């Protein structure tokens, strides 16, 4: 027989609402009802309601202890709920879902959503750590919300990551081919956020801009506006970019390379010493004074962009010896920190001892701005703070040019 809702409401309503809530929570957690529940600081009305339900005399004190088996027996014997207390709670409050069963079902749904990535990682062990972090950090849950929403997102992610690294493909074209949406990998889109994490893992770039990250795995975003100024690279006859470098070097002229050229048609690089400067004036002066005798030189032109970082990383991978000089000001320190912290770069006349000498010999303008610690030389920032003099590369051009050894075979 079904519970008698009117009788149940009279028996368990009003001041016994707390009892109904306690029982429901136990049922939702899959806990037994073969126990008692206690209410501390009970009101006189709540105590009276329990005493009436159980048919016992009022007891002193503010604490109520109610035997759930006793309540179950009363509901069965009275006919208010022939199936007992659980059926009564359902009749009064609605269907009950076991929280443990629901949690297990949700976990199973998330496993199904992650299945395409799990299958991919089995064949791409280099992605294992990224996959583990993605499970642990909750990013997918924050972006997708539910496993049902995550399932198509992670299926797209698996297809995108499976195609990395690419071979110099524009980002929109790559997105259309792998995710069937040319804008799926635009900044801010959930798929782009997840895919960038995989790209950083593949490229070994824990910190980098999205443009730099995509370029590192052969996907080009705005591939011609990011450039790098170079001079003196020997080039090679095997690629168009390499032949262009060789031609410009033989003419003693600097050359600007685009990110597209470096990714889609990279020159062959070797383990050669490479000097890096911050300002283009160093490159033009080297071209004027040294011409074809100048060794390879790269200019960051301020904060290094994607093309600069891509070239320098390729040089480092080839075993090139990299050394850097920049402006002795706080902005110059921050620019240098990017290079020293992310690449195997050595200072080139860019330390505390050098600063003290050039600041005395070439007094510049007053040093202003917010100080920054030089990651490669802990004594540099204190020296700059003490002398408070800004020294730009233009002031030490002669020293820098003299440091550039003649390129082998140029004389």
From TrEMBL:
<dbReference type="InterPro" id="IPR024465">
    <property type="entry name" value="DUF2399"/>
</dbReference>
<feature type="domain" description="Conserved hypothetical protein CHP02679 N terminus">
    <location>
        <begin position="35"/>
        <end position="234"/>
    </location>
</feature>
<dbReference type="InterPro" id="IPR024466">
    <property type="entry name" value="CHP02679_N"/>
</dbReference>
<dbReference type="InterPro" id="IPR013495">
    <property type="entry name" value="CHP02679"/>
</dbReference>
<feature type="domain" description="DUF2399">
    <location>
        <begin position="256"/>
        <end position="404"/>
    </location>
</feature>
<protein>
    <submittedName>
        <fullName>TIGR02679 family protein</fullName>
    </submittedName>
</protein>
<dbReference type="Pfam" id="PF11796">
    <property type="entry name" value="DUF3323"/>
</dbReference>
<dbReference type="Pfam" id="PF09664">
    <property type="entry name" value="DUF2399"/>
</dbReference>
């Amino acid at each position: 027989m079904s519970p008698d809702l009117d009788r149940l409401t009279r028996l368990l309503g009003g001041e016994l609402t707390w009892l109904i809530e306690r029982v429901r929570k136990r049922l939702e957690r899959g806990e037994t009802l073969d126990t008692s529940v206690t209410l501390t600081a009970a009101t006189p009305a709540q105590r009276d309601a329990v005493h009436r339900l159980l048919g016992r005399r009022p007891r002193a004190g503010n604490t109520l202890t109610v035997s759930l088996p006793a309540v179950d027996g009363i509901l069965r014997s009275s006919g208010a709920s022939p199936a007992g207390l659980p059926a009564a709670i359902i009749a009064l409050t609605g269907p009950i879902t076991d929280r443990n069963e629901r949690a297990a079902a949700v976990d199973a749904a998330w496993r199904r959503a992650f299945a395409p990535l799990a299958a991919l990682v089995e064949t791409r062990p280099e992605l294992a750590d990224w996959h583990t972090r993605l499970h642990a950090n909750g990013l997918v849950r924050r972006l997708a919300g539910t496993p049902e929403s995550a399932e198509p997102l992670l299926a797209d992610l698996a297809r995108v990551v499976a195609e990395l690294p690419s071979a110099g493909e524009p980002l929109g074209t790559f997105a259309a081919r792998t995710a069937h949406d040319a804008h799926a990998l635009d900044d801010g889109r959930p798929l782009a956020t997840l895919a960038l994490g995989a790209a950083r893992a593949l490229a070994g770039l824990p910190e980098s801009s999205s443009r730099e990250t995509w370029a590192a795995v052969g996907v080009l975003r705005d591939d011609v506006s990011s450039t790098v100024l170079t001079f003196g690279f020997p080039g090679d006859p095997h690629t168009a970019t390499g032949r262009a470098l060789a031609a410009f070097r033989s003419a003693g002229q600097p050359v600007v390379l685009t990110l597209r050229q470096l990714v889609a048609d990279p020159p062959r690089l070797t383990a050669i010493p490479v000097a890096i400067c911050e300002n283009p004036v160093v490159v033009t002066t080297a071209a004027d004074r040294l011409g074809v005798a100048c060794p390879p030189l790269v200019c960051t032109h301020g904060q290094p962009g994607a093309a600069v970082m891509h070239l320098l990383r390729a040089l480092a991978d080839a075993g090139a010896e990299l050394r850097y000089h920049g402006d002795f000001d706080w902005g110059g320190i921050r620019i240098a920190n990017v290079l020293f912290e992310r690449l195997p770069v050595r200072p080139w006349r860019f330390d505390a001892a050098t600063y003290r000498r050039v600041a005395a010999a070439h007094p510049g303008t007053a040093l202003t701005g917010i100080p920054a610690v030089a990651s490669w030389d802990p004594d540099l920032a204190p020296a700059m703070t003490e002398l408070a003099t800004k020294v730009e590369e233009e002031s030490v051009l002669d020293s820098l040019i003299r440091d550039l050894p003649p390129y082998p075979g140029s004389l």
